[in-house]
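Model it.
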Amino acid sequence: MKMKRRDLLKGLGGLPILGAVWWAGAVNTIGSNKERTEILEQLNIRPSLPKTMAEISGSPVRVGIVGFGIRGEQLCRSLGFATKEWMEEMRLAAIEIPGHSALKDYMSQGKLNVNLVGVCDIFDMRAEKALNSFATDDNKIKRYKTHQEMIYSGDIDAIIIATPDHWHAPMAIDALNNNISVYVEKPMTHNIEETYRLREAAQNSKGVFVVGHQHRQTLSFKTAQDVVEKGTLGHVSLIQTNTNRNDDNGAWNYDIHEKANENTIDWDMFLGSAPKVPFNKNHFFRWRKWWAYGSGLSGDLLTHDYDRLNCVLNMGIPQSIMASGGVYAHNDGRNVPDVLQANMEFPDFSKGSSQIEGKEKGMTFCYSATLGNGFGRPTILMGHDATMELGNKLTVWPDAWSTRYAQSIEEGKMNPRVPIFQYNPASNVPDAISSATSQYFADKGLMWTYIDGVKVDSTYLHLREWLSVIKNGGSVSCGIKEGFEEAITAHMTGLSWKLGRRIEWDAEKEIIVPIDGVDFDKILLSNDSSLELV
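Modeled.
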């Protein structure tokens, strides 16, 4: 569309909202102001800001971090604690790369009323890196050998868990049982049995529990809730969402530290409940590639897409899942698939209909993933009346056979090839995307959102919400209910892939429908090929 920004704003009465571009497309490129106003009034969609959080006042919240690897460092930065090494790397990047704003964004980030008082990591180099960067006269920080030592120390109010998946639930349960607040990375659990135990611990604890699905703070996803609730799309019968990655980082082949050895890593502690195998640096740094420590595509990346659609649609756990795929792009000893297709069925799902009552009911959620190709495929919600593409911005197209918009289409006020609504909170905000994987994370709402045209770290907003609830009460946007739904869905997908059959959920009993002779957790955690050290 060859339309200049000034023409676009003129067509909207010169009203940019919250740094976004709102617009309605008529048949002509510009269209009349009257037609556009009619369309916008008919849709009545409003962009949504993150909910107002009470100030985190009084004495600082004392926080401990368990796991100071890639994600642990990122979480600490969102708390306001960046390592010296990262600060220098970003300073140089800002000089060398036009538009690189990571350091500037970090320095302008709002301050959270926290003290980072403890770090626990079983790799000496990581723990020492944290101590060297964060220990000051104003911020005393201590290294703990185990998470239990940190929890029982009496020195922390809250704990952030950024470990391999098989440690998520045990650490969270220990903390909650001692009324310590918990921020745990996804997936919430590593097997089915501990999913129920963690839910019970969270429900009975005075601590505030949250799962690290920071995309719930992203404005486009919040606005998408309004789009769906107001019936803009009509009955949604199909969702297509995807993972497209094609580099070492995206395939979990992370760098191996040169000082990693049996003397600097507590290997027995790393293994925990996993099979006892000899020391293996590949397994330690690239643990996401094995079921014994991680959850593969189903728990690592599918959970992003499932939860961000669950926050828009509130669809809950699917009635059944059928998954397929294999190791087709990275035959390097891993035993989790790097290509995965999962079809989730929601036969009772409905958000209303523009057609006769009872005609439309049910939805299929299709997830398609490859770690061998980076071609971007968008997330699409397909309704009877309109289709929505959902990322860090959202766009809505009317359907040619829509019931709701039939008259507008017939009169030429709407055209199925022209969007009737677009919301882009990043309008006129330049971003420097460093890689295809970074773009992937950005479009999932996992890196930043925009408030009044200003880029804000989504994880910062998610942590701020958690800390505010710890101090002031209230509710978090991704608590134990949402975490339970995410974990069960991920485990059903993993089981379906391993068993090669449909896995069903009994919503009334809140259990995965049993299969005679099958121990679900034994199957889910089986990791025979982990013995093939590479």
